[in-house]
Amino acid sequence: MKKKSILERVAAVPHTVWMIMFIVAPMIFVLFFAFTDINGNFSFINITRLAQYSNVFLLSIGFALIATVICLLIGYPLAYFLAKTKPSTQKILVLLIMLPMWISLLIRTYSLMALLDNGGLLNSLLNQLGLADINIVGTTQGVILGMIYDFLPYMVLPIYTAITKIDPKCLEAASDLGCNNFKVMTKVIIPLSAPGIISGITMVFIPSISTFYISQKLGAGKFDLIGDTIERLFQNVGTYNVGAAISLVMMILITISVVVMNKFSGNDDDGGIIV
Amino acid sequence: MNETTLISLRDVSKAFDGETVLDAISLDIHDKEFVTLLGPSGCGKTTTLRIIGGFEYPDAGTVIFDGKEINDVPPYKRPVNTVFQKYALFPNMNVFENIAFGLRIKKTSEEEIVTRVKEMLALVNLKGFERRRVNTLSGGQQQRVAIARALINNPKVLLLDEPLGALDLKLRKDMQNELKNMQQKTGITFIYVTHDQEEALSMSDTVVVMSGGKIQQIGSPTTIYNEPINAFVADFIGESNILNGVMISDFKAKFSGQTFKCLDSGFAPNEPVDVVVRPEDVDVVPLDKGMLSGTVTSVTFKGVHYEIIVDIGGFKWMIQTTDFVAVGEIIGLYIEPDAIHVMKKSEFSGMFGDYSSYSDELDRLSDVTEENE
């Protein structure tokens, strides 16, 4: 490999410092807390206590999986039709999908709650029509709806990008070689948009599994997900170390899912958006 | 060559955004024939091919395949396969899977797929390339995969849309021969689209010259070259000196102020006509033996011959000769009766001037822009 010039080394310094301070150091802290007891002595006590949180893990993984699958089912067709509309309309629609991403997740979640809550916009409307309230806030559906609402754009955009990258001649070739419209979709469009699907799944699954705000607001505090648990443990004095252990497990979980996802996308190095 | 008509286009028209691309064209394509649609960009040749392939539907007219109207039949139901201009291989599949694609869709057994893909790879000289990813192949190799992917389905007709456009000259010549061989070996009808007249002449049984959404002439390569029907065809195919003339009587044409013996007849007495003389058919002779005389204004060495521009009474002729002549020399020219081709006046008359503004560079530039479209 070519030797780096002094200028290149100097230019890399701020980046390196940043990485050490804000990425490496926090991770070392997490590791440190995870393997020490409250007095700072090395110990496995936190790891052994993880078992009592297994339900939290299962619930979080379950919620995140359901949200990801529904996002994919809604997001793929949406991305497909988006990619097929004419370019001028496409720009506007992409903007509309991106727009919520510019607003803080907290605000979006809060407003969704305001919309769905008892006495919220939806229920007042139903009452006016003489219908009974629908209770969404505080239910499983409410939490999952919140995840879908918040993270759907992260599914749509990478898939949309992947679909627009497909050479339209490839679709004609498929049709020429005997595929009807359905087979063109299953044999060519979906496989060729796989990198986008992988990115989308990763980008929805990871924030879904680590979210705490959505379950607090839309779950009305009834659900304890990993994110909520970590938040609570870190807010209370003396439970830092268990919180760190759970964080560590979650980091490992996320790493595994990213690695698995990358395996799925094979050695195709183009088309993916992130990861 | 078999004379059964396989495909018939009857008064087929097509417009995109109100702009007519095909204007009531009619064309018969015979079984086992190598047909080339030839013309400049925007002449409608690719649209014609896409209508046959089923990728576009005609606005008017009928497309008949084997006696049945197929206007609204989608591409996947047509016994036709296409080799696309930029190959359009599936980037997520290796060479084997690309070629096997059509058979897999038809749910052919795995053993048969393996044997037939092997056969195809042998036919296109790509043995041992099964596991290669298509984006690691060169243009010529991708081209062969595209051909194999289409041919494996045993189509009645293979459509080729400027398949050699992206290849370099040497490779293009080799592939021309290979394609011609493949066509003869397989006995499949080839419909080939190109803007390269040399390619069209050297490969085809029949050439269809198109311009402005209309068919100008259909004929064998020799007919198209030797007996162009109008000034457009004469100008587009090869080099030609196109002169204003008058047909004095049968076998007697007058142009450049002289009367020449020729082999054409059937015109009204003194009918104005376009006369074509190919640059290679003019002999340079001593001044006193010439039927015409003129001043040499430019000489270009071309390897096989010199290309000279001769000013005869203000009209610049292009002449190809193996004898060296100097710029400024006054030379005599001799034209055999069979070198003169007389055409009826057409909408294209007068559109193609003499060689006064001719330059190699311009010619090459226009070639490049055509290839880049």
Concise overview:
The complex is a heterodimer of chains A (275) and B (373). Helix content of chain A is 73%, strand content 0%. Chain A is built from 13 helices and no strands.
What's the arrangement of secondary structure elements?
The complex is a heterodimer of chains A (275) and B (373).
Chain A: H1 6-34, H2 45-48, H3 54-84, H4 87-98, H5 105-116, H6 121-128, H7 140-165, H8 168-176, H9 181-192, H10 194-210, H11 213-218, H12 226-235, H13 240-264
Helix pairs in contact in A: 1-13, 3-7, 3-10, 7-10, 8-9, 10-13, 12-13
Chain B: E1 5-16, E2 19-30, E3 34-38, H1 45-53, E4 60-65, E5 68-69, E6 80-83, H2 95-105, H3 110-123, H4 139-151, E7 157-161, H5 169-186, E8 189-194, H6 197-203, E9 206-211, E10 214-219, H7 221-226, H8 231-236, E11 241-249, E12 252-255, E13 258-261, E14 271-277, E15 282-285, E16 292-301, E17 306-312, E18 315-321, E19 330-335, E20 340-344, H9 360-372
Helix pairs in contact in B: 2-3, 2-4, 3-4
User: How many strands, what sense, and barrel or not for the largest sheet of chain A?
Assistant: none
Taking the alpha carbons of the first and last residues of chain B, their distance comes to 34 Å
Question: Can you identify the CATH class of the domain at 55-225 in chain A?
Answer: Mainly Alpha
Q: Shape of chain A, please?
A: globular
What is the 3D shape of chain B?
elongated
Low-confidence runs of chain A: 267-275
- CATH topology of the domain at 55-225 in chain A, anyone? MetI-like fold
Radius of gyration of chain B equals 24 Å
The count of helical stretches of chain B stands at: 9
Assembly type of the chains comes to heterodimer
The top level CATH class name of the largest domain in chain B: Alpha Beta
By CATH, the topology of the largest domain in chain B is: Rossmann fold
Q: How many helices of chain A?
A: 13
* Helix/strand order of chain A: HHHHHHHHHHHHH
Assign the CATH superfamily of the largest domain in chain B: P-loop containing nucleotide triphosphate hydrolases
**Major beta sheet, strand line-up of chain B:** 6-7-8-3-9-10
Mean pLDDT of chain B, nearest integer?
A: 89
Task: Label the CATH architecture of the domain at 55-225 in chain A.
Answer: Orthogonal Bundle
Helix and strand run of chain B: EEEHEEEHHHEHEHEEHHEEEEEEEEEEH
